[in-house]
Amino acid sequence: MQRRFHVAAATLLAAGALLIGRGNVVRGADPADAAVAHIHGAGDNKDKITGTATFTPADGGVKVVVEVKGLTPGKHGIHIHEKPDLSKPDLTSAGPHFNPTGHKHGGPDGEHHAGDLGNLEAGPDGSAHLEETVKGLSIAGAKDGVIGHSVIIHEKEDDLKSDPAGNSGKRIAGGAIEAQKAEK
Ligand SMILES: [Cu+2]
Ligand SMILES: [Zn+2]
Known about the structure:
- This protein is of the alpha+beta class.
- The protein folds into two domains: 30 residues; 145 residues, Immunoglobulin-like (Sandwich).
- Helix content is 15%, strand content 34%.
- The chain is globular, with a radius of gyration of 22 Å.
- About 13% of the residues have low confidence.
- The site of zinc ion has 6 residues, from loops.
- Copper (II) ion binds next to strand 4 and strand 7.
């Protein structure tokens, strides 16, 4: 009797350990359910432009919310670029637009790079807010995940058609997209 109890207890413990272990594996495989980029001005705009872009899962893609201050009033092209490397003052180190499906540049509707977010419009005070759901992106997918890329804001308006970058001029600010840490 005593021995049978021990065996049962050991089996329960083993099953419990397995369940806990599996839970950890699932979390390890999908470490982020949101992503964030802390945006800073580059070159002449260093310390002038600041902001954030957050990415959360949405039906068929991701919801992007961008808040930026310190821009010149008007429209500014905004894209996800291939690399998170913002080391060059002109931000060319970030590479071209994130384009995992080999499309041409465009606006959020019609043919476009997965990273084409359109335009950010700054008001007279230089602050801008953009909120949109973008298809063809995920948070951490192997091919279409935004983590590990960057958000770049341009000097001028994106015309939403000229390949490869919408004629939006210089890159003035950017931020690397990282897995968002859980808030406590
Ligand atoms: Cu860009
Ligand atoms: Zn593009």
